[in-house]
Design brief:
heterodimer, A: MetI-like fold, elongated, B: alpha/beta, Rossmann fold, 8-stranded mixed beta sheet, 4-stranded antiparallel beta sheet, 25% strand
C-alpha cells in the first residue's frame, strides 16, 4: 500500500512562505543596531557615566575593565588625557550619526535630481551638468574642506558643507547613467504616448526605477561620510576638540595604537557596526523595492 | 463613407545626423476614417514607425524633426499645436500600442496604477471613479476578473495579457485614433489571432480609427479595410485591402505579394525581392524602387513618378501604371 504523504504547503518551494517583515533577521538586526545607536545619541547625557570632556590626568590611558589595571569605573578605559572612552563613544554618536544623515540627505537629493535631469533631458543640459560633475569629482574633498576650515573656521557645519559640496557628484554620475538607460525604455515611451509631461515622467517613471542603485549607494556612503569626517578631524579641519566624534577618536588613538589600542578600537567597532548595519538594511530594502522579490 | 478622422498630407520627417540627412518619411499622404482600420505595410526601416511617431509628435528630438506637411486630426492641424496642447491630445485623442508588451509597462507600478495614470491625466477624476474607469478599460479588452488583475504587477502577467493591458491603457480615455505598431509581432500565433479578434471587437464598440502597422500580409487581410504600402519613406500604393490582394498595381506591392508563402501553390523556392532597400540618406534620383524593379525603364531612373488615382480610392506612384 502506498503511503500517503501529507504535504506541508508552507514548505513547498523551499519554504518560501511570505514571512512577516519583523521576522527577517536581515531587517531586525540592522534596525536594532541603528535604533540603539540613535537612542544612545539622543539620551547621551543620561547614559554616559562622565561628561565627554572631563579630563583626569591621574586616570590617563587606563585599559578597559577586563584587562590588568582596568577598572569598572572606566569600562572601556580612558584616553591620553584621562577622558572616559565609553562616554565619548556615546556622545560621539550624536555627531557622527547626525553628520552622516545630513550629508547623505543633501548629497543624495542633489545627486539624484541632477542625475535624472542630465540623463533624461540629455543634450546640452547633460553636457553641462556632467562637466560640473567631472570637475567636482576631480577635486580632492579634503582640500576643499581645509580651505573652508581656514576661511570660515572648523566646526560641525563646515564639515557637513565640505563633504556635501563634492559628495553629490558620484550620485549624479550613477543616477544619470540609469536615467539615460530608462529614457530609451518602452515604458517611458508609453508614458509619453499617454501624454505625461517631462516632469511627470522624471518623477513618476524614472525616479522609482533608480531607487535600487540609489539605496545601495546611500548605504555605502554611511561609511564614507564617517571616515571622511575622521580624516578631516585628523587634519584639524573637522570637528574641533574637545567635542567627540568617532572619527576624531580613532585618529586621536593613532599615536597610541601600540600601547593604548582601546582608544581607536572601540570607536572603530561602532563605525564598523553602523556601516555594516547600513549595508544590511540597504540589501533588505533593495529586495523589498523589487516587486519581483516582494511577491515571494 | 464615414467621417475622415485623420488626414496626413505630404508629411516629411527627417533625421539630421552627422553623416547627413536621413529622409525617413518623405512625402506621405493618407487618411483614416472613423471605425476603419488602415494598414501601413512595408519592410523594416521603410518609415512606418517614424510616420506613427510623427503623428504623435514624439520623434526623438533634436535629431528627428517634422520638416513639412500637415496632420489633421478631426479638423485640427496637430503640427500647429503648442507642446502643452499636443500633450493633451496624446492619450485622449490619439494613442499608440507599442510592439513589445514585455517592456512597455513600468515594472514598479501595478497594472491598475498605470491605467489610472492616463485616466487621471485626461479625465480629471478622483478616487473610486478612477477605479471604475480602470475596470471598464480592462473589461473592454476582455481581461478576466479585472478587479484582481488591476492589483497585479506586470511581471505577474503573461505576454498576451500584458499586451491587453497595454491596449487597455491606450483605450482608457476613449481616443479617436489608435496607432498599433506591430502589436502582435511579439506574441505567438494563437495569441496573435485572439488579440486581432479582440481588437476588431474593441473597434466595433468604440468606433475608433486604427492605423495598423505591420509587415505581415496575413494580419493585413484579417484586420484592415484599406492598406498603404510604404517603400523607402513613401507610400507607393494605397487601396482597399481587397484590391491590393486581387490587383496589386505597383511592382513593389506585387513583389511583396509574391514573397508571401502560400499553402495553395506548390513551387520551388519562395520568391524574394532582389537587392536591398536604398539608404534613406542617399536616395536614388527618380523612382526609389527602380534599382530593384523588374520592369524599370529610363524614365524611372530620371523622374519620380507622381501619385495617380487609377480607380476610386486606389492610388499608385509608378510610371508603368496608366
Amino acid at each position: 500500500m502506498a503511503t500517503t504523504k501529507v504535504i506541508d504547503w508552507d514548505k513547498v518551494g523551499g519554504g518560501i512562505k511570505r514571512k512577516s517583515i519583523f521576522l527577517e533577521i536581515t531587517f531586525i538586526l540592522p534596525v536594532a543596531v541603528l535604533f540603539l545607536l540613535v537612542i544612545m545619541a539622543i539620551f547621551a547625557p543620561l547614559l554616559a557615566p562622565y561628561p565627554y570632556d572631563q579630563i583626569s590626568m591621574q586616570d590617563r590611558l587606563l585599559p578597559p575593565f577586563f584587562m590588568d589595571g582596568g577598572t569598572t569605573a572606566h569600562l572601556l578605559g580612558t584616553d591620553n588625557i584621562g577622558r572616559d572612552i565609553l562616554s565619548r563613544v556615546i556622545y560621539g554618536a550624536q555627531i557622527s550619526l547626525s553628520i552622516s544623515l545630513i550629508v547623505i540627505a543633501i548629497t543624495a537629493s542633489i545627486g539624484t535630481v541632477l542625475g535624472i535631469l542630465a540623463g533624461y533631458l540629455g543634450g546640452r543640459t547633460d553636457a553641462f551638468l556632467m562637466r560640473v560633475t567631472d570637475i567636482s569629482l576631480s577635486f580632492p574633498a579634503i582640500l576643499i574642506a581645509i580651505l573652508m576650515a581656514v576661511t570660515i573656521g572648523p566646526g560641525y557645519w563646515t564639515v557637513v558643507l565640505a563633504i556635501s559640496m563634492l559628495g553629490w557628484a558620484p550620485y549624479a554620475r550613477l543616477i544619470r547613467g540609469e536615467a539615460l538607460k530608462l529614457r530609451e525604455s518602452d515604458f517611458v515611451a508609453q508614458a509619453r504616448i499617454i501624454g505625461a509631461s517631462p516632469v511627470r515622467i522624471m518623477f513618476r517613471h524614472i525616479f522609482p526605477n533608480v531607487l535600487n542603485p540609489l539605496i545601495v549607494m546611500v548605504t555605502l556612503s554611511v561609511g564614507f561620510v564617517i571616515l571622511t569626517e575622521a580624516a578631516l578631524s585628523y587634519l584639524g579641519a573637522g570637528i574641533p576638540p574637545p567635542a567627540a566624534s568617532w572619527g576624531n577618536m580613532v585618529n586621536d588613538g593613532r599615536t597610541f595604537i601600540d600601547t593604548a589600542w582601546w582608544m581607536s578600537l572601540f570607536p572603530g567597532i561602532v563605525i564598523g557596526l553602523v556601516v555594516l548595519a547600513g549595508n544590511f538594511l540597504g540589501d533588505w530594502l533593495r529586495d523589498k523595492m523589487d516587486p519581483r522579490l516582494r511577491q515571494l | 463613407m464615414s467621417k475622415v478622422i485623420l488626414r496626413v498630407e505630404d508629411l516629411r520627417s527627417f533625421f539630421f545626423t552627422r553623416k547627413g540627412v536621413v529622409k525617413a518619411v518623405d512625402g506621405v499622404s493618407f487618411y483614416v476614417c472613423e471605425g476603419e482600420t488602415f494598414g501601413l505595410v512595408g519592410e523594416s526601416a521603410c518609415g512606418k514607425t517614424v510616420t506613427a511617431l510623427s503623428i504623435l509628435r514624439l520623434l526623438p528630438e533634436p535629431a528627428g524633426q517634422i520638416v513639412g506637411g500637415k496632420i489633421f486630426l478631426d479638423g485640427t492641424n496637430l503640427l500647429e499645436l503648442s507642446k502643452e496642447e499636443m500633450r493633451k491630445y496624446r492619450g485622449r485623442m490619439i494613442s499608440m500600442i507599442l510592439q513589445d508588451p514585455m517592456t512597455s509597462l513600468n515594472p514598479v507600478y501595478t497594472v491598475g496604477d498605470q491605467i489610472a495614470e492616463s485616466v487621471r491625466l485626461h479625465q480629471g477624476l478622483q478616487g473610486e471613479k478612477v477605479d471604475e474607469e480602470v475596470i471598464s478599460a480592462l473589461r473592454l479588452l476582455k481581461i478576466p476578473s479585472p478587479e484582481m488583475i488591476m492589483r497585479n504587477y506586470p511581471f505577474q502577467l503573461s505576454g498576451g495579457m500584458r499586451q491587453r493591458v497595454v491596449g487597455a491603457i491606450a483605450m482608457s480615455c476613449h481616443p479617436r485614433l489608435l496607432i498599433a505598431d506591430e502589436p502582435t509581432t511579439a506574441l505567438d500565433a494563437t495569441i496573435q489571432a485572439q488579440y486581432l479578434t479582440l481588437f476588431k471587437d474593441v473597434q466595433k464598440q468604440t468606433n475608433v480609427a486604427i492605423i495598423f502597422i505591420t509587415h505581415d500580409f496575413g494580419v493585413v487581410g484579417n484586420m484592415c479595410q484599406r492598406v498603404g504600402v510604404m517603400y523607402a519613406g513613401k507610400i507607393v500604393e494605397t487601396a482597399t485591402t481587397r484590391e491590393i490582394f486581387k490587383t496589386p498595381k505597383h511592382p513593389y506591392t506585387s513583389a511583396l505579394m509574391d514573397s508571401v508563402p502560400r499553402l495553395d501553390q506548390k513551387g520551388d523556392r519562395l520568391y524574394s525581392i532582389k537587392g536591398q532597400p536604398p539608404s534613406l540618406r542617399d536616395l536614388p534620383p527618380g523612382c526609389r524602387f527602380f534599382p530593384r524593379c523588374p520592369v524599370a525603364e529610363d524614365i524611372c531612373r530620371q523622374k519620380e513618378p507622381a501619385e495617380v488615382e487609377i480607380s476610386e480610392g486606389h492610388f499608385v506612384s509608378c510610371w508603368k501604371v496608366k
